[in-house]
Amino acid sequence: MSYSLGFPPERPLVTVTHPSATTWLIEMHNGDDCRFTEVFLKNAIMPALDAVERHWRENWRAARAAKDKDGGKGTLVIVGKRTQNKFFSNGLDYDNLVKDPNFHMNFFPLTFNPAIRRLLTFPIPTVAAINGHCFAAAFILALCCDYRVMTDGSSRNAWMCMNEVHFGAGWPLSFAGVLHAKVLDGRVQRKIALEGHRFTPQEALEAGLVDHLVKGDTEAVITKARQVGESVSAMAVQGAWGVIKRDLYRDALEASERPVLQANVLSDDAASKARL
Question: Which GO BP terms sit in this record (predicted)?
Fold first, then answer.
């Protein structure tokens, strides 16, 4: 059954399609560079994930009732806007978000961290189809997926980068939790977090940040991402994929739930001034 669902319905910022019996695809299209906002995460990404899981679980329950050992397969691909080949996502709409004086206390605990937990424990294999630049919060969202397929950058530049150190923004604990869960090499962690290194696609592959590189446009990246997801879609049949991930990524999940006040450069300087 093929369909197209937009979220939020009145002005879709993401579109969910079901291109095959075992594959769902979420396209992010909040502008060409798909910045993350509160509305985008709460009213688009989260209900889109709910729609995919709801449909997959309906299929899974039907397969179990029919004793169909091959039923209940599933995979989800997440991609940036399909009509361009430049951005997966440019990360948070930071300049507008920080206008809220309660940004640090509210946005991550109430908006972004729930999306992190949702993806880290999603019950079917997830693949980030990185069809262009992948910056900051988008880098974290991609790491939350089980697999990552990236353009090889041969047609235009594409980088993965956590650039907060360059503009003076601290990391929420949830970001560090995801990084520790998905990137095991301390040297790579240092390049990502403390150097804000712009990883080319080849560097990202060598560092283990992505699993495959693809020559071609966005559709080529989607095609490979679907192949990767479908190759492991049978792992969802027994219903244990998401259950296992809850323990596999327990430290990251717990970090995302801790009410830690995020430090910023000004508060850090003020505290240092008082101490010194």
Answer: fatty acid beta-oxidation
